[in-house]
Amino acid sequence: MDTSNNQDKPKIVVLISGGGSNLQAIIDQVGAGTIDASINLIISNNPDAKGLQRAATAGIETAVIDHRDYDSRESFDRELMRHIDAEQPQLVILAGFMRIFTPHFTNHYAGRMLNIHPSLLPKFKGTNTHARAIEAGVAQHGASVHFVTSELDGGPLVIQAIVDVKKDDNPDQLASRVLQQEHIIYPIAVKWFCEGRLSLDGSLVRLDRKTLPAEGIAYQASL
Ligand code: GRF
Fold first, then answer.
1. CB 207 within 8 A of CB 217
2. Residue nearest atom 8 in ligand 1 by C-alpha distance
């Protein structure tokens, strides 16, 4: 019998737009007890997001807030905030959420919203990161977990997974190796946050009270 009291656990709301494989990695770690938290709500702006099925399978409440139903970014963000704040979450997780927020939204969740981005930030902000990394001829690529600020893909870094780029890699091959690492580093960062070990102090990230270097913790993939 599970005697744990869910009400004492940090509450999480996850925002998705697509496949939800990072969401799944976090659901799995919460399910296994590695992350001691409760995922209260999963919100998608895309009614067809595969991640919604993952949420349903895990028995987690979902909401679809379709940005196309709103005439401005402000009104869409307001509706998102209404749903998120109703849960009073300690942490908001962006897991492949493909919308740009207003500064009002990002300021409201300052220090309690994380994102994962498929590049070694500050390199390759924005989209098509894997193709751009190959095109640029970098030897190493990867993924970054960061606190969200009003600067797109520009918030303070928590952890980066470093993936070697192979000769003749195509974007899909590289993306697939990076995604495997995303599924490792995102749950690690979420676990740290839920344990009260990870925080944002101004623009500095602290882990166990120590200030992290600007690039965050380096996680070297053994691939
Ligand atoms: C991931 O590559 C993530 O870094 C990016 O969007 C993708 C989402 O994948 N932000 P999934 O929906 O978690 O499978």
1. yes
2. 96
User: What tens digit of pLDDT does each residue of 48-62 get?
Assistant: 999 999 999 999 999
In order of their start, the domains of the chain are 1-109 (3.40.50.170), 115-223 (3.40.50.170)
Atom 5 of ligand 1, residue of closest alpha carbon: 96
By annotation, the residues acting in catalysis are 117
For ligand 1, mutation pick of 179, 181, 183, 186 (most atoms within 8 Å of CB)? 179
- 222: which strand partners? none
- CB-based contact 106:149 (threshold 8 Å): yes
91-126 confidence digits (pLDDT tens)? 999 999 999 999 999 999 999 999 999 999 999 999
User: How confident is the prediction for the chain on average, in pLDDT?
Assistant: 96
In sequence order, which ranges of 90-170 are alpha helices (DSSP H)?
Answer: 103-108, 129-136
Q: Which atom of ligand 1 is nearest to the CA of 21?
A: 14
What confidence score (pLDDT) does residue 1 get? 47
Can you give the pTM of this predicted structure? Answer: 0.96
Q: What is the dihedral of CA 146, 79, 10, 199, to 10 degrees?
A: 30
